[in-house]
Design a protein that fits this description.
Length: about 180
């Protein structure tokens, strides 16, 4: 699927409003336009640059250029190298999606993918598994997560003062509290 040729769709956000009984009501909000011209250009550059075919070492060495709105804790390098080929390729796709979300930062990123915080029960029981040391040696909680592949997740946090997403972990699903 590609973006429409109609330039009305060539913007990163779409304003959503609704009409009831012939009267247009207030604007519901702005959402990220996953079919925008910018997103299509990103997809094409990924295919052209062969980003999906790069090795974990190549991704790590070029991470700041490829993902300018993402920051990675040092342990993510080993996380990427430990993934199998399929999971690694899916992780790169997830990072591309997170980069796109972080590029469109309003008061917070405009996520074009499913991003969730952990449940309170999981954080109470296993919150320590979601703590990682950043590049400065500080420990932070990386509670936000998105599925990378079946059984694999990316955990990150929003660094609002810098408009970046900091990736703390990419790998097998961390323990969660079971619901009864």
């Amino acid at each position: 699927m590609s973006a429409s040729d109609d330039t009305v769709w060539h913007k990163p956000f779409i304003e959503v409003s609704y009409t009831k009984d012939g009267v247009t009501d207030v604007t519901v909000g702005r959402i990220g336009n996953i079919f925008s011209h910018d997103i299509e250009e990103l997809k094409q550059s990924i295919l052209h640059d062969g980003l999906g075919e790069k090795t974990p070492n190549e991704i790590w060495e070029t991470k700041n250029q490829v993902f300018p709105n993402l920051r990675f804790v040092p342990s993510v390098e080993q996380n990427l190298k430990a993934l199998g080929l399929v999971q690694f390729q899916q992780a790169v796709r997830k990072l591309i999606q997170l980069q796109t979300s972080a590029e469109n930062w309003l008061e917070r990123p405009v996520y074009t993918i499913d991003v969730r915080p952990e449940s309170e029960a999981t954080m109470n029981k296993f919150g320590n598994l979601r703590k990682f040391r950043d590049g400065s040696g500080n420990i932070h909680v990386y509670e936000l997560h998105s599925t990378v592949a079946d059984g694999f997740r990316a955990h990150f946090r929003e660094v609002t003062e810098q408009n970046v997403l900091e990736i703390g972990y990419i790998g097998p699903h961390l323990k969660v509290a079971k619901k009864n």
